[in-house]
Design a protein that fits this description.
The structure holds two protein chains of two kinds.
Chain A (H helix, E strand, L loop, with lengths): L3 E4 L2 E4 L5 E11 L3 E6 L6 E5 L3 E2 L7 E14 L9 E7 L5 E3 L3 E5 L1
Parallel strand pairs in A: 2-10
Antiparallel strand pairs in A: 1-3, 3-7, 4-5, 4-8, 5-6, 8-9, 8-10
Chain B lengths: L2 E4 L3 E3 L5 E8 L8 E6 L5 E8 L4 E4 L8 E5 L4 E6 L8 E8 L7 E4 L3 E5 L2
Parallel strand pairs in B: 2-11
Antiparallel strand pairs in B: 1-3, 3-8, 4-5, 4-9, 5-6, 7-8, 9-10, 9-11
Classes of the chains: A mainly beta, B mainly beta.
């Protein structure tokens, strides 16, 4: 199975900062990768799918890139509402879905 | 409007059985995969399995194969997750989620979660 390793596990940043989160796969696959945001007490929310497609209604400050084994989520200018935990998920095959371990974005 | 509404919180004893539900509305239930995701207290997301209600094709994560059963009743647009014998380690929040389309299993709509507590 494909393992997904996110880094960093915790990130301290200020409002207005550019933030990048990385997800590395244990083996290469086509861009079947999604990013989610989760706030405490809430269900995850889809941000990005197919590595770089922005989900409808998600602010354009969120973007995704990458292919093969390395993928990134970038927040171009961090807003107060963005302090949350972020997860990547690969879906390279219906029987082989895996989430990354998560990245908590905290206020610096 | 797409909605996934999950059944309420459960408190169970070890060894008991349990079936939780996820009722879908606002879209064609038989045309999208439904997945189940576990989140243990203070931990990350774990994919458990998925089902395609159109033909009941079901796939499990190796970590959950044999530990849970996923099913669906398309007549009432509801998916289920069940345990035959709960353990304390099953204590977690469980989410159902809909796939983005019939061929790509990212999840665009999520239920509100069902908290399962297993304690003697």
């Amino acid at each position: 199975d494909i393992q997904m390793t996110q880094s960093p596990s915790t990130l301290s940043a200020s409002v207005g900062d550019r933030v990048t989160i990385t997800c590395r796969a244990s083996q290469s696959f086509i861009s079947w990768l999604a990013w989610y945001q989760q706030k405490p007490g809430e269900a995850p929310k889809l941000l990005i799918y197919d590595a770089s497609s922005l989900e409808s209604g998600v602010p354009s400050r969120f973007s995704g890139s990458g292919s093969g084994t390395e993928f990134t989520l970038t927040i171009s200018s961090l807003q107060p509402d963005d302090f949350a935990t972020y997860y990547c998920q690969q879906y390279n095959g219906y029987s082989k879905l895996t989430f990354g371990g998560g990245t908590k974005v905290e206020i610096k | 409007e797409v909605q996934l509404v999950q059944s309420g919180a459960e408190v169970k004893k070890p060894g008991e059985s349990l079936k939780i539900s996820c009722k879908a509305s606002g879209y064609s239930f038989t045309s999208y995969w439904i997945g189940w995701v576990r989140q243990m207290p203070g931990k990350g997301l774990e994919w458990m399995g998925i089902i395609y209600p159109g033909d009941s094709d079901t796939r499990y994560s190796p970590s959950f194969q044999g530990q849970v059963t996923i099913s669906a009743d398309k007549s009432i647009s509801t998916a289920y997750l069940q345990w035959g014998s709960l353990k304390a380690s099953d204590t977690a929040m469980y989410y159902c989620a809909r796939s983005g389309d019939s061929t790509s299993c990212y999840f665009d709509y999520w239920g509100q979660g069902t908290l399962v507590t297993v304690s003697s």
